[in-house]
Design a protein that fits this description.
alpha+beta; two-stranded antiparallel ribbon; 4 helices; 2 strands; extended
């Protein structure tokens, strides 16, 4: 998902609203926020079974850094959201990968 997935139309989509109507939340008083950014979800399915997942820290932080591929994918999604075409995005990624190789020339990105 990228920023382009959070449009006014997307959040007004009846399918999104139908799922949102089924969501409840409860603040855990024992949550270590702001020292840790944890996550916990419990889903009760139509058959009554429960699926639960806990995350002790957020992905992309010091305890679970993003991979190079994750960062490049996120960058590309943000570029698309900002209106860049694929060629400009690829040129920017190429430029970034060589930032410390010598003189920086940004003319490809202008």
């Amino acid at each position: 998902m990228g920023l382009g997935d959070f449009t006014d139309d997307a959040v007004k989509d009846p399918r999104v609203l139908a799922v949102a109507a089924k969501v409840r939340y409860r603040i855990d008083p024992a949550n270590p926020y702001p020292n840790e950014f944890t996550g916990h979800i419990r889903a009760t399915l139509a058959d009554g079974s429960v699926v639960e997942e806990r995350q002790p820290h957020f992905r992309g932080g010091a305890k679970e850094p993003l991979t190079r591929a994750d960062i490049e994918d996120k960058f590309a999604l943000n570029c698309r959201h900002g209106g860049w075409d694929e060629g400009t995005t690829k040129a920017a990624l190429k430029q970034v990968k060589s930032l410390y190789d010598g003189r920086i020339d940004l003319k490809e990105l202008r």
